[in-house]
Design goal:
- This protein is an alpha+beta fold.
- It has one domain.
- The chain is 23% helix and 31% strand.
- The protein has five helices and seven strands; from the N terminus they run E-H-E-E-E-E-E-H-H-E-H-H.
- Strands 1-7-2-3-4-5-6 form a seven-stranded antiparallel β-sheet.
- A hairpin with a 7-residue loop joins strand 5 and strand 6.
- The structure holds zinc ion (ZN).
Length: 168
């Protein structure tokens, strides 16, 4: 499954939408993608899980503005993800990615450095930098985890209903 690339996302805004798309309703998170460097061939598979927070007024769990990023560290083991850091959205400033003290993966680890580089360029809209990597999803909607079946969804990694919900 890990090596089954079901689709590639080329548009920078579509990549950003996908990376942050998780609806937070699954313990593991739905958003899985692989980034491959065109120059070195180095690749990492990441999983981004959006945290939920409890809304006291509606009495419902809702997606928060925090996303936990993990890297796949075993080649075949779907469950072998290691937490590397957190994406924050504080509203006034651009979203940012930070290393976590709780992570067993160091700040100098290539998986951390690669994601940090990638996400910063994504947020800044640096197309030249982003064009140096290829972005693959696994044919599973980044928001809800359902299988993607139509071509327009393969291009964005999001089912049509989910795409409309995140304004993609
Ligand atoms: Zn979906």
């Amino acid at each position: 499954m890990t090596d089954e690339f079901a689709g590639t996302i080329t548009e920078i805004q579509n990549q950003l939408n996908f990376v942050l798309s998780d609806n937070g309703r699954n313990k593991e998170g739905h958003t899985v993608f692989t980034i491959v460097s065109n120059r070195t061939g180095t690749r990492f598979t990441y999983r981004v899980k959006r945290a939920n927070k409890f809304n006291e007024q509606s009495r419902k769990w809702e997606p928060s503005n925090v996303w936990f990023v993990s890297v796949l560290s075993g080649s075949d083991n779907q469950d072998d993800y290691r937490f590397i850091g957190t994406i924050f959205d504080r509203g006034v400033a651009p979203k940012f990615f930070a290393h976590s003290n709780k992570s067993k993966v160091s700040k100098s680890a290539s998986s951390f450095v690669a994601f940090s580089w990638y996400f910063n360029n994504l947020i800044e809209g640096n197309e030249d930098a982003i064009n140096n990597v290829e972005f693959f999803h696994q044919g599973i909607c980044g928001r809800c985890g359902r299988e993607l079946t139509v071509p327009s969804s393969i291009e964005t990694g999001l089912g049509s209903i989910c795409a409309s919900k995140i304004g993609a």
